[in-house]
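Continued from yesterday's entry.
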Amino acid sequence: MAASDAVPDEVSDAVEAAVEVVADAAEDVAAHPVVQHGARLGYLVSGVLHLIMGVLAVRLASGDHTASPDQSGALATVAGTPLGWALLGLCVLGFALLGLWQVVQVARRRPIGSRGKAAAKAVLYLALAAGAVGFMRGTPASSAAQTRDITALLMSWPLGAALVGVAGLVVIGVGVFHVVKGVQKRFVADLVERPGRLVGVLAIVGYVAKGLALLVVGGLFLRAAWTHDPSGSTGLDGALAVLLGAPFGPALVAGIGLGFAAYGLYSFARARFART
């Protein structure tokens, strides 16, 4: 074999060896009690925020237009409690460790699709941790404002409207995934044992409600791309505000709010029975 042929093989072997080392390290990190308990704390925190979001959505449906039923609104509610700073600290810790847990899943020996979902979830949870840090520092950020700012930035790029449209399609795809996961009970694969009937019902209602809300959010992105108007894109609170003006809007928003609350309760069960 020529020396030039041996070099690529040596590089390939070195890369494979490095990948194996990273995968082994990821398995060790995933098995560490701090990471496992941290992920469960993250699910608990997520459950609390979804319960608050559900309450805020019901308040919005009841005519309280100051209610902001999204992550920033839920964090603002937590910050306004007597133990707000300490509770926000738990939010930061829980979401950061859950984000770390998802990062570890990317490096483990998993199918490519599972790694991609883990990477997306890692970004989401770490962003939530950063948002909670902002509230602790007294510099809160509105989810709706951040969405509009990101959309405006994309619009300023070449083919920006197309990028915003693609983002809308991605969000719609995530929404469809949530609905299907709930209806087909695919959430069972996330748990170490099959949940009881009540937990199963909560999961179905919660995933479907979240999926429907995401479909509306994605639709607003598509509208913003079509009209070249960044202000047309918004987060979850804006999507529910749009639904509020539809026929039977208050009932729809209240139903989604109850679905968020159901997902919050399911998250408590997931914290106990999550497959790690």
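--- second protein ---
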Amino acid sequence: MIPSPSTSLVMPDYWDEACKHLVRRDRVMKKLIPRFGEARLQTRGDAFTTLARSIIGQQISVKSAQSVWGRFVALLQPGADPVVTPPAVLALTIDTMRTAGLSLRKVDYLRDLAQHFVDGAVHETSWADMDDEAIIDELVAIRGIGRWTAEMFLIFHLMRPNVLPLDDVGLIKGISLNYFSGEPVSRAEAREVGDAWAPYRTVATWYLWRSLDPLPADR
């Protein structure tokens, strides 16, 4: 997910306890976690903006996504400090949205996302009381959001502690390199490794991402 530099960062309060738990129980985490010091998962921005950014960023480079996002946001309130809200997005015409460099498909996805928020089909105020799968089910009902995007949202926006995104190529590669000496890993093998990290599978996943890329993971 594309970071938003104008919003403050929030970090999970369970991180230190999770690290202690994983270091005690997992030989790889015992070596991996200390390598990254005080680095933590962090989130920023509101739910609608985060999901809109994830849609715009699909299948294009981070640099291109930043450029398109900047042009898109500028359409909402030209000359002012733009606020990305569902009504503001729905107020734009399709042709106007296309001028930001969006494909017709992404325009459709963004309008469907905005409509879900306006209609109350996205129960953001209830998420704290919903389990992960219930939130995933709600999000994948929106066009352009699949399970992987929903799981990234659970990790990077809601900071849920026990998400295991088995469709993520980085996670699979990290498990392969750190647990199987680089040998190919099946989904079942990855799940078995990940299940041992519970109830902090998110944290272990994040450290495996870091083992591949020393820069903080920010989706």
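Residues 104-119 form the longest helix (16 residues). Residues 15-43+163-212 form a domain with the Endonuclease Iii, domain 2 fold (CATH 1.10.1670.40). Will compare against the first tomorrow.
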